[in-house]
Amino acid sequence: MPEIGAGDDLAALLLETLPNEGLADRDIVVITQKVVSKAEGRVVPAAQKAEAIQEESRRILRRAAGGMVISETRHGFVCANAGVDSSNVDVEHIVLLPLDPDASARSIRARLKHLCGKDVGVVISDTFGRAWRVGQTDVAIGIAGFEALVDYRGTVDTQGRELFATRIAAADQIAGAAELVMGKADNICAAVVRGARVRFGRGAAADLVRPPAEDLFR
Fold first, then answer.
1. Does some domain include residue 12?
2. I want to staple 42 with a disulfide (CB 3.0 to 4.6 A). Which of 84, 93, 96, 103 is the partner?
3. Contact at 8 Å (CB) between 73 and 83?
4. What is the DSSP letter of 122?
5. How many domains does the chain have?
């Protein structure tokens, strides 16, 4: 993919770079947040980083030495620096999260269907740290075309016991799997996941945000 700028047609660029077989119905296209944000013009001068973090935060949860904060974004995500990031962008700028990642995913999905006629899912992925776990992994911050969770509640396990709580964050698993082939500095900003065991239909990454009433830690 070329360097992405404001107003670029991500769907068209993706289709141009795909192998000859292109997309198939029920593929899931995973796209990094960084290029989505660039295409949507969510880029500001690096000198405004502290101000941007404050503006992008619904509330600050923790502050660390060196200026890093853990904050809750307007979307409900809990992450470092409200998702404001300087990687894979020129040194004079920083990139903010999309205003509405689920809407961005729906727009890209609709554009892909218009251009190639295939009914696919879309994931917008970003790299998040995890409390109590070392290292980062990609998660879904926006999705379209399939349900974010695979719900096993009301089914039984291999021993016949009813499951009461198990819901698998399939969208996050797909984002993490895609990152294995995209990397962080390989100029690969998208991947196609084929054969994922998900339920196609309406879905949103907002469904992955734990409601405050169920949150035991904040």
1. yes
2. 96
3. yes
4. E
5. 2
pLDDT at 215: 84
Q: What are phi and psi of 113, to 5 degrees?
A: -65, -40
**CA angle, 39 then 40 then 45, to 5°:** 90
Q: Determine, yes or no, domain membership for 217.
A: no
Cβ atoms 184, 89 nearer than 8 A: no
Domain span at residue 73 reads 43-96
**The domain spanning residue 20 has which CATH number?**
3.30.1330.100
Give the tokens for residue 171.
């969208």
DSSP assigned state of 2: P
- State pLDDT tens for residues 64-102: 877 789 999 999 999 999 999 988 898 999 999 999 999
Predicted local distance difference test score (pLDDT) of residue 116: 94
pTM: 0.93
pLDDT in tens, 172-218: 999 999 999 998 778 899 999 999 999 999 999 999 999 888 888 76
Say if 215 falls within a structural domain: no
- Residue 3 is inside which H or E element, if any? none
DSSP strand E in 64-157: where?
69-73, 78-80, 93-95, 121-130, 133-144, 150-151
Say how many residues make up the chain.
218
- Using CA atoms, how far apart are residues 100 and 109, in angstroms rounded to an integer? 14
65 with 49, same domain? yes
